Structure formats: C-alpha cells, structure tokens
Amino acid sequence: QVQLVESGGGLVQAGGSLRLSCAASGSIRRINTMGWYRQAPGKERELVATITPGGSTNYEDSVKGRFTISRDNAKNSVYLQMNSLKPEDTAVYYCNADKIYYTLWSYVEVWGQGTLVTVSS
Fold first, then answer.
1. Using CA atoms, how far apart are residues 89 and 63, in angstroms rounded to an integer?
2. Which pLDDT band holds residue 5 (cuts at 50, 70, 90)?
C-alpha cells in the first residue's frame, strides 16, 4: 500500500511563511509528477503547483513569486515553501502524486490526507 503523508500546516499571520512537506511510503519503484492542491471553504479543489521528476515546475498564477515547490527523489518527498502568505491562501493543502509505480508497469494516483493552513489578517 502506497500513501502520502503531509506535515507543516498551521496558523500564521499575513506576510509570514510556512513550509509543507509530503513523503511517500510503501512499495515504490518511481514517482511521476508530484504536486500540491488546496481547497478553501466553500470552494473547489485547485492546483497550487506541480513538479516533474526532472524538476520542471508549474504554478497557479496567484502564488507565482511567493511559493516554491521542490522535491527530493531519493526521499520520495515533495515540499512547498510558502512566503508572503495572504488570508486568501487559507485552505486545506493536499499533496498529490499522479502516478506512483509499484511495479515496472503498474501505478496508482495517490492523495495525502490534507493539512490545514490558516493565514490571519
């Protein structure tokens, strides 16, 4: 069984910083694209940032220049450094891996359980 476990959420004042971490565990041969999504109260889940195994990144427009996604392939982990946080960044943040290969050809998409980030004004 493969799972993603997030950590690092919490309460921070506007303008502050937080670093989210997500580690994959289980029977893993390799991981394709990893990313962070968020869901604010009353809203749909949205993409925040993604990163490929080679390090290519993609960001949602509102976080460009403030958030940085990175990964450590050796540790099967992905991180999200969030700076200059705003109240509108308040949401539950979910880690995602679109394809975790557990055999040479078989893969599964996995979501983390979510971690709450609250930014106070």
1. 9
2. very high
**Degrees (nearest 5) of the Cα angle 97, 22, 11?**
125
Q: Kindly report each contact of residues 7-13 with a partner whose C-beta sits within 8 Å and lies 24 or more positions away, as own/partner.
A: 7/115, 8/115, 9/93, 9/115, 9/116, 9/117, 10/116, 10/117, 10/118, 11/118, 11/120, 12/85, 12/117, 12/118, 12/119, 12/120, 13/119, 13/120
Residue range 25-73, pLDDT digits in tens = 999 999 999 999 999 999 999 999 999 999 999 999 999 999 999 999 9
**Which distant-in-sequence residues (6+ apart) come within 8 Å of 43 by Cβ?**
91
